[in-house]
Every structure is written in structure tokens, then in C-alpha cells.
Amino acid sequence: MALNVGHLFDQMHRILKLRNDAALASILQVSPSVISRTRRRRIRLSASLMLRLHDVSGLSIQELRAMLGSTDGWFSECRQLLQEEDGTEDILSGLLKP
Question: Alpha-carbon distance 11 to 78, whole Å?
Fold first, then answer.
């Protein structure tokens, strides 16, 4: 089952009372192209973007993962990326437990 990133972003619009993806990008302090490319599955939903969504929305990581639809696939990919990138898995592992 594929992750439903579009649904997650749409829910963020509703929760944060935002009009569009440009406003979401602004509040997350990322380029609008990051939101667009992630929504269209050109790039993966990153752990850092999930943490930014958590910070601005006040929702737990588990709640955000539930909005994606398939939490196991995202968690496995995220854990692997964190191990490869910079060892931040130890810091985030408590937040990302399935």
C-alpha cells in the first residue's frame, strides 16, 4: 500500500487553516517545490519534514503516520534513511516506534 502524502498535506491544510501548499511550505520553512514534489511522489517524505509537521501541528508522530495510511512502510524507509544519513536514528527512534 502506498503512502497517501496528499491526504496528509490536505489534513494539514484543514488543521492549520491554510489555503494551499504554498502556505504549508511557508509555515514548514521549506520550498514550495518540496511540498509539490513530495505530494506527487517525485521525492520521498523525509523524516525532517515529518518532524516539522509535528512541530507546527502539535500532532504526535503516530497521528501523522496514521494520516499517511500505511505506517509500517514509511517507518521502515525512515529508519533506514536515518541510519544511512547521520545516525540520528537514536534520537528519533522513540518518536517513530510503530
Answer: 21
Q: Which domain does 55 fall in, by range? A: 5-92
Specify the CATH number for the domain of residue 33.
Answer: 1.10.260.40
Q: How far apart are CA 9 and CA 70, in angstroms?
A: 15
Q: In this structure, is residue 61 part of a structural domain?
A: yes
Indicate the SS3 state at residue 93.
Answer: coil
The band of 82, judged by pLDDT with boundaries at 50, 70 and 90, is low
Does the residue 98 lie in any domain?
Answer: no
Q: Which of 1, 16, 90 is nearest to 52 (CA)?
A: 16
Question: How far separated are the first and last CA of the chain, in Å rounded?
Answer: 16
pTM of this structure: 0.71
Position 63 in a domain: yes
pLDDT tens digits for range 18-30: 999 999 999 999 9
